[in-house]
Amino acid sequence: MRIAVGVTGASGAIYGYTLIKALYDLGIEVHAVYTDMGLKVLEYECGHSIEVIQKYATVYDNADLFAPLASGSFKMNGMVVVPCSMHTLGALAGASGRDLLTRAADVTLKEGRKLVVVPRETPMTPIHLENMLKLARSGVVVMPAAPGFYHKPATVDDIVAFMAGKILDIFDIEHALFKRWGN
Ligand SMILES: Cc1cc2nc3c(=O)[nH]c(=O)nc-3n(C[C@H](O)[C@H](O)[C@H](O)COP(=O)(O)O)c2cc1C
């Protein structure tokens, strides 16, 4: 499998990092693109530079519209934008394609592949909600960063792993990131 991960400057860089590492650990090919603010928030919240991400993924420059992810002919199983800022959410809803992240997401949709968007903001305005509705109506899986607590997380890592696991579930990828209800 081959999955693209786009990471923006919303809070929750650890969600992107955890997903990328989980995919890598499961033997899945990961192609990652960070926005400029995504890189800054990764450094600020996690203390990681992009070199850490490069251990687990092929990382592209967001300005590089010649990169493989910019074309539908580059086969992918899908893409996840996590965490997704309200800025990028608006760009996705407008099919902007002005940088690699938004172009790759637009390509994912037009090719009929799975696109998962994990918005992070609170509270939300009607503009944010309308953008999410627009995407959901186009077949995007909108999965707000709203982890559950019914699996009784003991650590922040457990909370984050829950979200990463819910994303993997969308792609039907087996994982052990959280304990399932009823198991
Ligand atoms: C520490 C930090 C946390 C932020 N958290 C959020 C957030 O949770 N949601 C959001 O929409 N924007 C958040 N922002 C603002 C975005 O980074 C800003 O809107 C930026 O333009 C997003 O650009 P991008 O979508 O290209 O990454 C945050 C900024 C900083 C510095």
Automatic annotation (TrEMBL):
Pfam families in UniProt: Flavoprotein
UniProt: dimethylallyl phosphate binding residues: 150, 166
Reactions the enzyme catalyzes: dimethylallyl phosphate + FMNH2 = prenylated FMNH2 + phosphate
Domain Flavoprotein: 1-170
Enzyme Commission number(s) from the entry: 2.5.1.129
Coiled coil, from the record: none
Keyword Flavoprotein tagged: yes
Keyword Amino-acid biosynthesis assigned: no
Domain of life: Bacteria
Keywords: Flavoprotein, FMN, Prenyltransferase, Transferase
InterPro entries per record: Flavin_trans-like, Flavoprotein, UbiX-like
Gene Ontology terms, MF aspect: flavin prenyltransferase activity
Gene3D superfamilies xref list: Flavin prenyltransferase-like (3.40.50.1950)
Binding-site residues for FMN, renumbered to this chain: 9-11, 35, 85-88, 120
PANTHER family documented for this protein: FLAVIN PRENYLTRANSFERASE (PTHR43374), FLAVIN PRENYLTRANSFERASE PAD1, MITOCHONDRIAL (PTHR43374:SF1)
Role according to the record: Flavin prenyltransferase that catalyzes the synthesis of the prenylated FMN cofactor (prenyl-FMN) for 4-hydroxy-3-polyprenylbenzoic acid decarboxylase UbiD. The prenyltransferase is metal-independent and links a dimethylallyl moiety from dimethylallyl monophosphate (DMAP) to the flavin N5 and C6 atoms of FMN.
Family that this chain belongs to: Belongs to the UbiX/PAD1 family.
UniProt-recorded name of the protein: Flavin prenyltransferase UbiX
